[in-house]
What does this fold into?
Amino acid sequence: MRVCHSPHRRLRQTAATLLAALVLLACTASSLAQNGQPDAPIVVEAADQVDDREIERRIAEIFAEIKSLEDVSAEASAGVVVLQGATTDLEAAQRAAALASRVQGVVAIENQIQRDASLERRLAPALEETRNLTERAIRAAPLIIVALLVFVLFVFAGGRLSRWSGLWSRLTPNDFIGELLGTTVRVAFIAMGAVAALSLLDATAFLGAFLGAAGVLGLAVGFAVRDTIENYIASIMLSIRQPFQPNDHVVIDGREGKVIRLTSRATVLMTLEGNHLRIPNAMVFKAVILNYTRNPLRRFDFELGVDAGDDPMAALDLGMEKLRELEFILSTPSPIAFIKTVGDSNIVLFFAGWIDQSKTSFAKARSAAIVTVKDALESAGFSLPEPIYRLRFDNAPPELSTTSDTATPTAARASPLRSTDTADVAPEDAVSRQVEQEREHACAPDLLDTRAKQE
It folds into this structure.
């Protein structure tokens, strides 16, 4: 029996077959994607592609504008660009590849750029920069000349003003401060000239950087030489105060001597033994200074003890009488005497008198006065006993028990009265002469000014 199929049935069968093929194709694509197979390459239609010559032209235009890439060329084939040529460094080659990759239509970059190490190419940028600087300097030459003239004018004016010694001597207390002020003015004029010149050249930024660096450097140097700077500043203050003069007899922080000179670092003394003594000015400025020379009048004093059984008031009157008889002791202020203490075995008497140090030696006058008063008291029958100690022994042996428990002081030996009228009490000038010799032959500057008013 023959079965006849209608056209509609055959159409349905064809559609089902196509649908099954599409489903099979979709399943196959899904399976390939799940198995990590790469997608099929996308084929760019000819209408979307950029011509290789256009790519080469565009890259050439870009490289022509860059000095370091002017010798680099590009060849394109199917979007693949090959870079060839030479550059001075690796960074320029990498930059060329980055710029070429941004051009439309470039698919890949093959960088074959070589590094050019030739001396001529290496020196070319430096020579070009030197040439440019020379050209700029020639163009700016008139302005540079004007700036130099302004700077020289300031320097000249500062130098002339700093050497105007008459002005500084009237404005300052001594020559050292005047010289320091003149130097300060000269430095200030130099700084103002530099600022004015750099302002004309529009280089104030450089000046600011230089001043900042100088400030940091100055701070570091200041910490390094702190003691030196401290001594220098102290020397300035001492030269203003003038607490002593050359050949003054002083005691500075327990160190005694006569002043030779004051330098920018130290005060130089000559001790009474003839030795040089240098004391840093920072220490001198902060120390307690005792000046024996400033006031010519000076008082000496001494103590003598008489026996407890003697009349102390009679001893005081006799001692005062003998002190007034000494020619080197001043009547105004007058000598003084009083009872200082009452000891276990004596009465201590205090005597004092005034002398003129410019005419009388302090040590010699005190020595002569002690001898005069002591001899007078002894000649008048007053005892100058030594300390007496009483010892007591418990359970003493018989030979000690027969000894008297009191000790009788030995009788005072009266000595003949010695005259002090001819005693040499003239001032000792050996150290003073040595100081004058040191000052005459010294080359070091002296900051002491004998004309300045002392503090």
About this structure: Confidence is low (pLDDT under 50) at residues 1-8, 28-48, 403-415.
